Amino acid sequence: MKIALDVSAVPPRVAGAGRYVVELARRLPAHEQELTLVTRRGDEPRWQTFSPSARVTPLVPRGRVERLIYEAWRLGQSKTARDSDVWHSPHYTMPHRCAAPTVVTIHDMTFFTNPEWHERSKVAFFRRAIAYSATHAKVLVSVSDFTARQLDEIVPVHAPVVVAPHGVDLEAFGVDGTHDGDTLERFGLAADVPYILFLGTVEPRKGLDVLLEAFEQLSSRSDVELWIAGQSGWAMSEFDQALVNHPGAARIRRLGFVDETLVAPLLRHSRVVAYPSRGEGFGLPALEALACGALVVTSSDTVMAEVGSDAVWLARPGDGASLAEQLALALALDQDQRALRSRAARARAELFSWEHSVAQHLRAYEMARER
After folding, report:
1. What are the extents of the domains in the chain?
2. Among candidates 215, 211, 250, which has minimal Cα distance to 230?
3. Has this prediction a pTM greater than 0.85?
4. Among 51, 55, 169, 356, which is disulfide-ready with 36 (CB 3.0 to 4.6 Å)?
5. Whether domain 180-349 has CATH 3.40.50.920
6. Exposure pattern of 61-88 as b/e (b: 16+ CB <10 Å)?
7. Residue-wise pLDDT tens digits, 337-356
């Protein structure tokens, strides 16, 4: 099958949905598929590194506005589209009048359910894009049952949906932390300090305001630090000011975007991973933490609760006291209890694989080609 995968929306710093696209690009050629990666102009080298056996075609303009206009009105009629059996748009949007049957990935429905979590201009744009894709794509891919249910509620009439949960690289995110201390020290981090870790893009929906509130309430654990890892998103000036004014500011570290080689050691070496996001399409950092055998506290009534099942502690979304209570429970475990919960976390993560995700995508491609 000739598959065209549009990777042009993946930013230079790969995280979240970008990680998903990279994993597809890496793994699809191993299934004897003829894969073409459609990139922004000048972005070919990194995609040739990610997926050496794929064909890389730099069709898309670099600027965001220009890219979206080109995608909507010209990309679908390109020679690459005409020569493909299936076109996959992995980030909500799709070409208009595409020459190939189109599959579109819907990550979450928060542009509808919680528009306050996003920039206003993006809310208007992505609501229209999702509504268009839902009725013009041949097949939709949802990254979780949670998102698929919300899609049914908000856009009742839509193309068939294939649920393809994200996976996790169980080797890269393993439980062996023998050299974690050395890795942390190499990046200038103290290996002998107990810390609560947040990993993810720093933006309003992630619940970092709630995490600061919870950290203040953990007054009995003044030995524990809070480390915040991830690139800055939007509308975080209030959070930045709260960080400066926080009573425990001396014990809070902003790590920024961290090197890929540091992610797993940070997760494994943490006392607890806190992922108090108010809502996600999947919540990949929580799954990666589980794969590392980390203790994870996340939000109830979210997709992370579905992914983590009984291997995670659950706090009420937006509730600092609830989050502090659950963090305290995880921090209070003795060594044997931690080992038991760590094994349960790893066992839960082993139920998710990128190979299963790829298989579901191949199913979606076949469905699209046949419709």
Report:
1. 2-167+353-370, 180-349
2. 211
3. yes
4. 55
5. no
6. beeeeebbebbbebbbebebbeebbbbb
7. 999 999 999 999 999 999 99
